[in-house]
Amino acid sequence: MAAELTAEAVQAIRVNTVSLDHAYTLPQEVRVIWPTRWTVPKVLIFAVRYGTIALALLELLWILPRDISEKGCKRIFKIVSLLEVSLSALGEVIIYIRVWAFAGRSRMALYCLSAQFIIVLVICLLLIVRSTSYAMVSTFAPLPGLSCIFQQGGSLYMAMAYVAMLYSVTTLTCVMTIVGMLRYRELGPLGGRRFGIVGQLYRGGLLYFFVLGALCTGNIVSNIAGCVAFTDIHCPCYSRIQIYLHSIIATRITFQLRQFSADGANYSPTHIDIQPASTNSNLGEIRL
């Protein structure tokens, strides 16, 4: 009974977290995102933000007691699996674009980051497909409050996929750290607003690393321990929590940068900027 209550509580917390975050940040989205022209980052932001809401609504289907057939449960499983993979990939694209902009939009950084993203994505897709091939979907669960039970036997494959994700998170953070140190040495403490946007990106990158890195580690440990994925009945499964927080962090960092840029439109420096003008060219190109 305790496991059943824990499963329902964790699922309810996830859905409520997504709903509350969307309601809290909606005014900021309307203010700093809606008026801008349509670009690839803007499309990605909307896809990740509202795709996460769709995933949360689907999760409600098995939080709330409903009479769902086994065919319906399998259909939900396929849609949820597709959404989870798509949202994770799109969220990573946002982070990779932000790191590329942070690195000055250099061609070498573009090639290296693109190659890493494609390699990690292909590895994760192969491992996830292999893992979900062991998935079992059942209905009319004996647990009150749950309509479908999704169980997965290929936990080791999922653990390997999260190792690849952890590698991606770690390398991106190393790039952010190195570039941030170089930019600080270049701009110095007198960099004014030009270092301000570097600070915004730097702080967001560290938050991304600590949160996503911790969740990747938790998923690795839970899957190696043989926990049942796609459900929280036997142990805490952090996969969907990671997807939700990944979406929240990516969108909030973007909103933060947009707000910083909007505030800078009316910025009037109170001191003479003695830094070389050439340093501002790369930072001014950051459009996320």
From TrEMBL:
<protein>
    <recommendedName>
        <fullName>DUF6533 domain-containing protein</fullName>
    </recommendedName>
</protein>
<keyword id="KW-0812">Transmembrane</keyword>
<feature type="transmembrane region" description="Helical">
    <location>
        <begin position="205"/>
        <end position="231"/>
    </location>
</feature>
<feature type="transmembrane region" description="Helical">
    <location>
        <begin position="43"/>
        <end position="64"/>
    </location>
</feature>
<dbReference type="InterPro" id="IPR045340">
    <property type="entry name" value="DUF6533"/>
</dbReference>
<dbReference type="Pfam" id="PF20151">
    <property type="entry name" value="DUF6533"/>
</dbReference>
<feature type="transmembrane region" description="Helical">
    <location>
        <begin position="76"/>
        <end position="102"/>
    </location>
</feature>
<feature type="domain" description="DUF6533">
    <location>
        <begin position="20"/>
        <end position="54"/>
    </location>
</feature>
<keyword id="KW-1133">Transmembrane helix</keyword>
<feature type="transmembrane region" description="Helical">
    <location>
        <begin position="108"/>
        <end position="129"/>
    </location>
</feature>
<feature type="transmembrane region" description="Helical">
    <location>
        <begin position="159"/>
        <end position="184"/>
    </location>
</feature>
<keyword id="KW-0472">Membrane</keyword>
